[in-house]
Amino acid sequence: MNGAAKITAPSGVRYYNVISYKQTTSTGITMFKTGIRAALLLAALSLFAAAARADIASGNGIEVLNPARLEYVVEQVSQDGRRLGITKEQIQHIVEQRLRHAGITPVDGEATGTVDPFVYVRVVVGGKGFNIRVEFSRPVVYEVDGQLLTTFGVMWSDSVTGWSTDGDYVMGALDRPMSRFIEEFRKANRL
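^ that's the sequence the OP posted. Answer follows.
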């Protein structure tokens, strides 16, 4: 089948194609056409196996393997936010400070370029109004028509909206969603 390698097994041994769940004999099984598809499947299966070993029936999506380290991403500040003196670096400093205070080592997700779970912070100012959003996202693998796909999924989010022309007031409003996230993250990861 288009150069795909065949798997052979002793006569009478039956395998199940994990993607389509159809039973086939050993002579009819082929390996996945791409390494990425196999890697995604193995990653998904290993996550399910890890959950089964830990006797966890379900989670809230913010559990991580190493909760002492967490990547973060801060979105660029809008022009109106910059007019109030709010900078991306200022937001990064607050996020890093809050995580460190909670015993979590912050890692700049933009600098690493990895796909680890991460906390995302966005501060948007428009005129006199503002919105601050804190989200926790992670890679998600799903299947559609026999094809494994991956994207980032938001597992947790909180936001605050208000009115102010004072940059310090807007930055102070970041405390509520960050505090709620840290509380939920610590609880989910038993910190």
